[in-house]
């Protein structure tokens, strides 16, 4: 039996082999992991759909796999290892790992059947085709060669409908050149990238672009080229918020969670999205409709050694700070270990990118299409702020809101970020207490 790469899910048809867990001669059980495959921004474990002994392996780490490609061959001698489920439903398992090829067309079918717009060739016969005298007269008057007309009646007899159909085919063929000329000229092909020998100016080293980096590059280019970006800046006063965080951080740690600024940001963003639902929408370009979402699934950008990964926390509006802090830490750990699943990267309605732990102030994040907005947070800094006529030192958080100008107007974005700044400064102690 050949084990082939199964369907990886919507929009995923290939991946790169990261680890191979078996070797030739190994006996494996049904559902036992055989390899790890890096696809999009996740590393997925591919299990065996059968039990048996590995007789041959066709892949190695670093190879690119596509759906339906052979991974390994299992002999039939170890079928006893298979579970009762696989014995009772062998046909179902076979469909998962090996797509059955469709029926092939015989060459004669393709060669002998004329295209709808083609005229059948003249029939090599010394006898005229069967047709009524009135049809023959009509053909002579119109200058039609009846040997090129296909008769639809018994014995190939040509009737008036056959002549009419032949004339209509000729009219369509005559119109084809004009139609082709009316079509817009195809766009010029994109020139190949220029090859540059950087070593002629000094020593260099090279490393291959990882599959994750290639995905990031492709998606960022698509997002930047398709979405007209505008970024709105504002500062939020988080002095009181950070005082509460310090006060309750130990209590949260005792309950298995880290209370961070991002935890507060999740709640502040959702509360503000409820006031401005257009920022929790998507543009359906196919139907030209704006889809307003009634759920709040927030993506959080995680910086990993391999690149930026954005897992999604679902139903943020229904979770408290403790649950959000736990889930946030768990997803960040899985992202850094490349254990986050492909499903955990989908379905986001808004994204937060917090660079405060690294440093820096305002920046312009790129919208994560099909979302229409993303929030970038920098590092908070003490600044002199005028409050009630007095200058006070306050901890100010730099914010940058990038948005899709096709959906969101500047006034809407400005009101959103101002309300978001109020939300950061509006946390009360009862919101943080456990």
Helix content: 25-40%
How would you state the average pLDDT, rounded?
Answer: 83
Number of strands: 19
Please describe the biggest sheet, giving its number of strands, its sense, and whether it closes into a barrel: 7 strands, mixed
Q: How would you describe the oligomerization state of the chains in this entry?
A: single chain
Low-pLDDT runs of 5+ residues are 78-119
Summarize the helix and strand pattern as letters.
EEEEEEEEHHHHHHEHHEEEEEEHEEEEHH
CATH top level label of the largest domain: Alpha Beta
Radius of gyration over all CA atoms, rounded: 33 Å
Count of the separate structural domains: 3
Shape annotation: extended
What does this 3D model show about the protein?
This protein is α+β, with helices and mostly antiparallel strands and 434 residues long. It has 3 domains: 2-97, OB fold (Dihydrolipoamide Acetyltransferase, E2P); 120-169, Irregular (Dihydrolipoamide Transferase); 229-432, Chloramphenicol acetyltransferase-like domain (Chloramphenicol Acetyltransferase, 2-Layer Sandwich). 31% of the residues lie in helices and 22% in strands. It is built from 11 helices and 19 strands. The strands form 5 sheets. Strands 9, 12, 15, 16, 17, 18 and 19 form a 7-stranded mixed beta sheet that branches. Strand 10 and strand 11 form a beta hairpin. Helix 8 (261-275) crosses helix 9 (321-336) and helix 8 crosses helix 10. The longest helix has 23 residues, at 160-182. The chain is extended. It starts with a strand and ends with a helix. Mean pLDDT is 83; it is low at 78-119.
